[in-house]
Write a structure and sequence with these properties.
Elements (H helix, E strand, L loop, with lengths): L1 H6 L7 E3 L9 H13 L2 E4 L13 H14 L4 E4 L2 E3 L3 E6 L5 H18 L4 E3 L13 H12 L2 E5 H11 L3 H7 L5 E6 L2 E5 L2 E4 L7 H14 L4 E3 L8 H16 L15
Helix pairs in contact: 4-5, 7-8
Length: about 270
């Protein structure tokens, strides 16, 4: 945070934060957060609403998020299309079964969340490593939830690549199946290569070549949507991260620029 605040680089157009990490934070850190929300547009990306969980929807949390958004002038909130616990918290994002029953259940909870917040939200396609039920394909399940809930999509391009490799489907076909009118913005991130047929979504490495390539195709299909670079640990120097951000901006303007990308940003 300190390096970003001191530099305030022009490459950064907006920030994304997890509301669970900042709601109720006061003192020096709370004041610094306020400085950031006054300097940059900020979006919220939730970690613990657990939209697919069997336990009741956490309406108290949603109320706190609504007040937090009003306090800081934040207008956009998203969550993962997954669940992370029942009576307790698993600290991981678990896949929702791809079934018609799950579509109706999750869509109802999303609609309720939107009622409490008083606005539309977006849900993110998540990475997963096992699937308890595949009555529907991932793309069919995603489209059905978006339609029934009447919500938006936070499209994670890295997760498409990770899932395509891990589950043996075509990433481009998945991208083509995404309802373009629902996509609000994009995520890109790095992942870990565990094996030839296994990728682990870590947000702890540079964005890989396959993700850059799919991002370029995404811009070709959907246009230059706002895009967030995620990095959760193994933070390199700020200039290295900004190199990736600059490549995002170049591809937004010219998706074909990937072949001409700077070596510092086009690797993986």
């Amino acid at each position: 945070m300190q390096a970003l605040w001191e530099r305030q680089p022009e490459e950064v157009d907006f920030l994304e934060v997890a509301p669970e990490n900042w709601i109720g934070v006061g003192g020096r850190q709370g004041r610094r957060f306020r400085e950031f929300t006054e300097r940059y547009p900020v979006t919220l990306h939730g970690l613990s609403l657990s939209l697919g969980a069997p336990s009741p929807l956490d309406e108290e949390l949603l109320g706190r998020i609504r007040r937090f958004m009003h306090e800081h002038g934040i207008t956009f909130y998203s969550e993962h299309l997954s669940y992370c616990g029942d009576d307790g918290h698993l600290y991981d994002l678990m896949p929702i079964p791809f079934t018609d029953e799950a579509v109706h259940y999750v869509a109802g909870r999303i609609r309720r969340a939107q009622e409490i917040l008083g606005q539309r939200i977006a849900v993110e396609n998540v990475s997963y490593y096992a699937m308890p039920d595949r009555s529907l394909s991932e793309a069919e399940f995603l489209r059905a939830v978006l339609e029934e809930a009447d919500c938006d999509l936070l499209l994670d391009v890295n997760n498409i690549v990770v899932n395509a490799i891990n589950h043996g489907y075509d990433a481009m076909e998945f991208l083509e199946a995404v309802p373009a009118e629902r996509v609000a913005y994009l995520h890109v991130a790095g992942h870990y290569v565990e094996a030839e047929d296994l990728r682990v979504d870590t947000h702890g490495a540079a964005v890989s070549d396959p993700v850059w390539q799919l991002l370029a195709h995404t811009y070709e299909r959907l246009g230059p949507l706002p895009t967030l670079l995620e990095r959760d640990f193994n933070f390199p120097p700020l200039d290295e991260l900004l190199g990736e951000v600059r490549l995002v901006r170049r591809l937004q303007q010219d998706p074909a620029a990937l072949s001409r990308a700077e070596p510092e940003a086009a690797h993986g």
